[in-house]
Amino acid sequence: MSIYTLFPTISTSFIVISAILVAIGWRLAIRRRLDEHKKVMIAAAVAAIIFFIIYASRTILVGNTEWGGPDNLEKYYVFFLVFHIILATVAAVFGITTLVLGFREKFAKHRKWGRTTSVIWFFTAITGVAVYVLLYVMYPGGHTKPMIDAIFGL
Ligand code: HEM
């Protein structure tokens, strides 16, 4: 596996792991196993942070990959990608809010936010995997240019 596909594979795996942990954590909350709920949700947040660190370092050091499939499918890919990026950004804001509400013991609000956060996070993971499959599995990825190169004109 090349460096161009290694990092996206690892980071996408962390989104999936995080979403699975959120599903487990939600189930624990419903069953009132709240100590375990807390631990599992913190683990889900750590997995999400690891995803973001890998994704951000790769974007800066290795670059983003252009669409490598047929031209007529590119608009669908871009639509999916933008939808995924918006979902991921909203999920991050909602996730931080849910965590803060949990730690401040504002549990009525936490419960409401937590449900929305979890659902948004599931869709983020599903669309993230779809973007990965479109970009690296179904079609060979296009040209990759590091942000650092773009900034410094290398
Ligand atoms: C981003 C991380 C988290 C998410 C997505 C999340 C999600 C949820 C969800 C969906 C529920 C409601 C379950 C239901 O009834 O359907 C819930 C309940 C709860 N969560 Fe979290 N949670 C997170 C982190 C935490 C943390 C860090 C704590 C503790 C500090 C915590 C403590 C609780 C408690 C005590 C409840 C029960 C609230 C009640 O029923 O009044 N959660 N959480």
TrEMBL record:
Cited PANTHER family: DUF420 DOMAIN-CONTAINING PROTEIN, HYPOTHETICAL MEMBRANE SPANNING PROTEIN
Cited InterPro entries: DUF420 (IPR007352)
Protein name, per record: Membrane protein
Keywords: Membrane, Transmembrane, Transmembrane helix
Organism: Paenibacillus beijingensis
Transmembrane segments: 6-28, 40-57, 77-103, 119-139
